[in-house]
Amino acid sequence: MTTRFISDLHLSAERPDITGLFIQFLRSEARESDAVYILGDLVEYWIGDDDDNSFHRQIQTELKALTDSGVPCYFIHGNRDFLIGEQFAEKTGVIILPEPSVIDLYGRRTVILHGDTLCTDDVGYQRFRKIIRHPWLLAVARNMPLAWRRWLAEKLRDTSAGNKVLSAEELAKYDAKDKAVGQVLAEASADLMIHGHTHQPNIHQHMVNNSLKTRIVLGDWYEQGSILEIDAEHFELKSQPLAAAPN
Prior knowledge:
By secondary structure, this protein is an alpha/beta fold. Helix content is 33%, strand content 23%. Helix 1 links the parallel strand 1 (2-6) and strand 2 (33-38).
């Protein structure tokens, strides 16, 4: 069997092609998985579980169908959807994990996270993240009027690189830094790290405490689907063409 990882889908009603591929994935490969992990930024933004619009209901219905089929699905918050909460989990059967989390992946100790905390050169964002993700402020945000939360979501979008074309200097600034990667791997005593956020899919090797570690970066879903498949023998980063939304 195979475990599959995805992140940075940024689903929205304005991109039915991305939504279509995600639903196609949930109805096909995902059903043949040992587990599915969504490592943040599932949606373009999520302003609270009480924002019960038709698009959110569609996504939740498809995730519930996956978990009802017997496939466990796990979720880690991203910088766009950190207000996803327990109501979402109850409606979908998805299990929300803390960040970072350590899992046993076919005998390999693996640390998983969204990845934004690794981009330590982006000082302004890290300062903003620390403030906005404070437990007290999160509790306040969940009780704000929906209109205020929509403003907050737009602010978060403004602080994120999103799908803008970035210069080489900007790509370096927004990328994960070796020191931060090494620290997380060492603290987790992990041999493998999997994360998203940077939108630069690749496989990296890091020397941590005189031991070689592997880091796999998931791709975004702006121009294609990006799925990491791992089994007991190997792993593969796959790309898939976008699709029209199914009926």
